[in-house]
Amino acid sequence: MSLPAPSSPETALIDALAAIVGTRHVLTEPQAMAPHLVEWRGLYRGTARAVVRPGSTAEVAAVMRLASERRVPVVPQGGNTGLVGGQIPFGDDQIVLSLGRLDRLRDVDPVTDTIVAEAGVTLQRLREAADGVDRLFPLSIAAEGSCTIGGNLATNAGGTAVLAYGNARDLVLGLEVVLADGRIWNGLGRLRKDNTGYDLKHLFVGSEGTLGVITAAVLKLFPKPRASATAFVAVPDPASAMRILERARGEAGGALTTFELMMRRAVEFVLSHGTGVRDPLADTAPWYVLIELTGQDEAALAERMEAILGAAIEAGEATDAALAASLDQARAFWRIRDLMSEVQAHEGGSIKHDIAVPLAAMPAFLDEAIAAVEALVPGCRPAAFGHAGDGNIHFNVSQPPGADKAAYIAGWEAMNAIVHAIATRLGGSISAEHGIGILKRDLLPEMKDPVGLDLMRTLKASLDPLGILNPGKVL
Predict the structure, then answer these.
(1) How are strands ordered across the β-sheet holding 385-387?
(2) Which one of 343, 377, 407, 452 is at 20 to 30 Å from 127 when CA atoms are compared?
(3) Ramachandran region of residue 280, left (φ > 0), alpha (ψ -120 to 50) or beta?
(4) Per-residue pLDDT of the chain (475 residues; tens, 9 = 90+)
(5) Are 83 and 103 in contact (CB under 8 A)?
(6) Closest C-alpha among 146, 150, 112 to residue 130
(7) Sign of CA dihedral 211, 215, 221, 225
């Protein structure tokens, strides 16, 4: 009688993973794995041994224990909407830990103003759940229909409401995290004040899956605004926009929710390629700001906005403005802003920068960076836009018309170096809200304080001594 051939180590691993999550949740066929191996812009294409889709925190823990025992690298992945390659595997020995099946809303509590969501809950669904109990979860980004809260927290996502509510980090009360060795840290506390030692949750928020796998979170809810006032404003230059921001803060205080800055070229890209959009103002301007106030009293908000706009026009800080007369008009203003990232693909290659600078330095950064990239690549088209209220600008630069896209994109690192040097010299950051991933990993040692970088390495070595969690990312 012949004995069956022994299984290979690879087959044994797949069988062990299937025993944990079920055979149909271990993907090994190229077609099934493909969506998990490509960044949505096509900038990164990876390889992996398998995609594993656990359905519970216990299953995540079991997968991590197995990976630790066999020293298998694991790449956590949420909605795969990241922009720096942090969610893409790069190695036939790696497995993707896709958290989409962890999609339960464990609790929604309007009394404590908290919501407990698993990592795979989409941001849109979470916001809708908050709305269902007459509350607001303020994190809002363009990809909210497909991005997941685990990924939002792992990258410390920002968005359009940071000015009023803060980054993702500021919206977390507690976390549940699976560590590299499979242990589960239950930090799902709901306390607003807890001084019992180190605040461990902040180790994992923004760590991009390199220190642990976030499986659930307790998140803050806020009173739902009953009214808003939204304006689309033409300004001559970024310095004028910053003066309007200062004016709006003084006039509106905490009611100032949004202050977005947009270069005219970015608006033109939307008007050329977007659907259901039109120019909000009769005359064009070099720059625009989108301002929104929110609160409970519609008349009071409109009065404040009119005072801000009137004073700005009188001072020469604004040349024109349109105050939304209806919710539909406000949505039309927002649609222009929301489409800016998407439509740039129609203009060929786009080299992107996600920078932050101190507010006082924003005009200088934009002036210097625009001049620098135009000198580097004559005919290139800067199309800057972003969250000027918190110092974050997406400094995107489209290729010259008719240029070869591949040749233009090949200059990505050279252009990055120039733009990042300007931002750093002005006291800024090379990554405001998209993270480091692999795209900016090699830039980090040049930009980060050496002691800070050493502390990051110490944390990584302590929490992931085998180096199996998202290897090659961040550090």
Answers:
(1) 320-323, 227-235, 287-295, 256-263, 385-387, 392-394, 354-356
(2) 343
(3) alpha
(4) 344 444 577 789 999 999 999 999 999 999 999 999 998 877 889 999 999 999 999 999 999 999 999 999 999 999 999 989 999 999 999 999 999 999 999 999 999 999 999 999 999 999 999 999 999 999 998 889 999 999 999 999 988 889 999 999 999 999 999 999 999 999 999 999 889 999 999 999 999 999 999 999 999 999 999 999 999 999 999 999 999 999 999 999 999 999 999 999 999 999 999 999 999 999 999 999 999 999 999 999 999 999 999 999 999 999 999 999 999 999 999 999 999 988 999 999 999 999 999 999 999 999 999 999 999 999 999 999 999 999 999 999 999 999 999 999 999 999 999 999 999 999 999 998 888 999 889 988 888 899 999 999 999 999 999 999 999 999 9
(5) no
(6) 112
(7) positive
DSSP string for residues in 214-230:
EEEEEEE-EEPPSEEEE
227-341 and 348-451 share one CATH topology?
yes
> Which of 423, 410, 425, 422 has its CA nearest to residue 377?
410
- Cβ contact 235:318 at 8 Å: yes
Position 387, amino acid: H
9-98 fold? 3.30.43
The domain spans of the chain are 9-98, 105-223, 227-341, 348-451
User: What is the fold of 348-451?
Assistant: Alpha-Beta Plaits (3.30.70)
Read off the DSSP letter of residue 36.
H
The domain over range 227-341 is classified in CATH as 3.40.50.1980 = no
Give the fold, CATH level 3, of 105-223: 3.30.465
Instruction: Residue 306: count other Cβ atoms within 10 Å of its Cβ.
Output: 14
DSSP code string of 411-471? THHHHHHHHHHHHHHTT-BSBSSS--TTTSGGGHHHHS-HHHHHHHHHHHHHH-TT--BST
Using an 8 Å Cβ cutoff, are 18 and 50 in contact?
A: no
